[in-house]
Amino acid sequence: MNVANDIKTNRQAAQALKSATRLVVKVGSAILCGADGEVNTSWLESLAADIAVCRVEARDVVVVTSGAIALGRAKLDLGGKLRLDEKQAASAAGQIALAECWQAAFAKHDIKVAQVLLTLEDNETRRRYLNARAAINTLLELGAVPLVNENDTVATSEIRYGDNDRLGAHTAQLVSADVLVILSDVDGLYTADPQSDSDARHIDVVDSVTPEIEAMAAGPNRIAGIGSGGMMTKLAAAKIAGAGGCSTVIAPGSIDHPLRAIADGGRATLIRAAATGDTARRKWIAGRLDPAGSITIDAGAVKALAEGASLLPAGVAEIEGAFARGDTVALIGPDGTKLGQGLVTFDANDLNAVKGKHSKDIERVLGYRRRPVVIERSDLALARKTGDV
Asked: How many CB atoms lie within 10 A of CB 377?
């Protein structure tokens, strides 16, 4: 069955949380908002306090938050089942209130927040994917907490994530998170309905989301979660996150200080990723069989990469191919040996103009300011140790 259930497994969820350097925390509208459409302010402040602790411990946190439509429909006095255009209007009205609530909760900890609205196309279109990832990473570098939500104002059924559990998983992939925490109105996955079956067992750890595990979610756990996502969508999200090397923790979110509760060994279900995020991402990059071009680097760049640095324009000697930003390119050493391949952040024409130049000269040459990195270290898969070249 690939599950475990004993006193030690709660510690495993706690350890996964404590060892993560980057978390994505998904908050559903059923937890954030009451039946009256108002935000549970005291609970939100407790979560903000937990995230502030993570920040002190040098862990990045990205929040995926629902609630805009719930808040907006109350503000616009929209009742009953909403049409698509009414949902879009409610989202537009609710996003402002939602951001204000989060901002107020974090203000006590002197933490800034920033709103990031995504659609499925932002994950499917490579250039938009890179832009979204760069924006979120920059926000984290600047000390802000990104608040991610689906852009319901423009989203339709064809371009929706479907639910914010999946949005959380795609965001975890986008930012290369170590752990996705799904705060829910249940405390994890069960073998049967605990309300009707006294033999039902809570599943603390899932090593692999098998058809048998999915059958549990489709049966006794199918009604878990209020809103658009039940337990099945949570497992689907865990599979998406796991493919990117990110483990998932499904935990009760209705209690105060929910992240602290997980860290203290509280009840939750940990769904392990098959590989680390770094390993999964680099395997994916290395598996791109048709690079759009190549970049030849000098000996100094080879040494820098061996020490874990990213590739900068100063280390680029030659380029080949008409590649675009986000394409896969081969990385060639000064002796002609292929070192690996990576995702390039420059178009070929721009890189050709700044190759061999210092980072401070980029703005003067290109006429605009941009990040100097050619290939981020996390976007590079080396075929062998560069120090051997």
From this structure: 15
Output the DSSP codes for 266-334.
Answer: -S-EEE--SS-HHHHHHHHHHT--S-SEEEEE-HHHHHHHHTTPPB-GGGEEEEES---TT-EEEEE-T
Distance CA 159, CA 93 (A): 21
> What Cα–Cα distance (Å) separates residue 2 from each residue in 136, 169, 204, 211?
35, 21, 11, 11
Q: Is pLDDT of 7 > 90?
A: no
Average confidence score pLDDT of the chain: 86
Give backbone dihedrals phi and psi of 65, rounded to 5 degrees, phi first.
-120, 130
Q: Is residue 380 helix, strand or coil? A: strand
Length of the chain: 389
Contact 111, 52 (CB under 8 A): yes
The answer to whether 146 and 114 are in contact (CB under 8 A) is yes
Indicate if the alpha-carbon torsion angle 93, 98, 104, 109 is positive or negative.
negative
Coil, helix or strand for 102? helix
Per-residue pLDDT at 277: 60
Helix (H) or strand (E) holding 83: none
SS3 79: coil
SS3 61: strand
pLDDT in tens, 100-148: 999 999 999 999 999 999 987 777 777 788 889 989 999 999 999 999 9
Contact 191, 216 (CB under 8 A): yes
Token match 């039940």: residue? 230
- C-alpha–C-alpha distance, residues 144 and 110, integer Å: 10
Contact (CB, 8 A) for 237 and 164: no
Q: Phi-psi region for residue 308, left (φ > 0), alpha (ψ -120 to 50) or beta?
A: left
